[in-house]
Fold:
Amino acid sequence: MTTSTLGLIAGLLLTIAVVTGGLVGLLLGVVLGAAGYLVGAHVDGQVDLGELLRNRRG
Structure:
C-alpha cells in the first residue's frame, strides 16, 4: 500500500470522526480524501505540490 493510499484512507477516516452523515459530510469526505491523497503522493514523489502551488501564484 502506497503512502498516497494511506493518506486517502486517513483523510476519509478523519471525515468520519468529524462529521457523520449529510451532504456536507459527503463533500467534506471528498475534499479531505483528496487532500490526504495529494499529501501522500507528494511524500511518495509522485506529485510535486511545490510546483503546483508556484504555477497558481503567477
The mean pLDDT is 78.
